[in-house]
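User: Last request for today: this protein with coenzyme A, please.
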Amino acid sequence: MKIIDATEDEKLNQQMAEILLDGFSDTGTQAWSTMEECEKEVADSLEEKKISRIAVNDEDEVLAWTIGEEIYTNYTWELALLVVRRNVKAKGIGRKTLKDFEEQVLKRGGSVVFLGSDDENNRTSLGGIELYPNPLEHLANINNLGDHPYEFYQKCGYTITGVIPHANGFGKPDIWMTKQLLKK
Ligand SMILES: CC(C)(COP(=O)(O)OP(=O)(O)OC[C@H]1O[C@@H](n2cnc3c(N)ncnc32)[C@H](O)[C@@H]1OP(=O)(O)O)[C@@H](O)C(=O)NCCC(=O)NCCS
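Assistant: Here's the final one, the structure of the complex with coenzyme A:
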């Protein structure tokens, strides 16, 4: 497997859109729910200022995809997307692709990665309930009820540093996580 910059390439771009459409189909999100939206995400990710990286095997199959954008100049990049093809999950590809993303951030002079991981279908103890007036208390006692990816990120060195209660409607919070790549 190699991890490369995504570029305009009909066959690879088509697969990127396909794994995006499929990857979030069971997360309860309304985002990326049509092929058109996913194709637009592919095209937008190819902008010069973004990171768009794909993991590809010897058969030119796209196995994973990351997108990132600088959100605090010279310091912090948002990991806007990480998706692994469904039939190759749980083989360490997510971890490797995320590591590659972090290396890309460092190469561009960044030192912090931020990401928001939504819970739109009660996959954590933060879903489906009122988090006010003490969201941080709920955050401190978070439980994973249904394979929510926050634990994947924790295993990759990320810390939960915030939450937006009801970010996607009542009981559908966005869990914020960050990783300090370098002290700067
Ligand atoms: C989340 C995702 C990127 C993980 O990729 P992956 O290739 O399956 O993960 P890896 O095999 O690299 O796993 C690394 C570690 O995290 C753990 N892990 C992976 N997914 C996990 C989950 N959902 N919950 C808890 N732990 C998880 C693995 O067990 C492994 O642990 P180990 O090192 O102790 O063996 C992948 O499942 C995916 O694309 N999901 C759909 C899209 C998505 O949710 N993206 C993230 C949105 S914020």
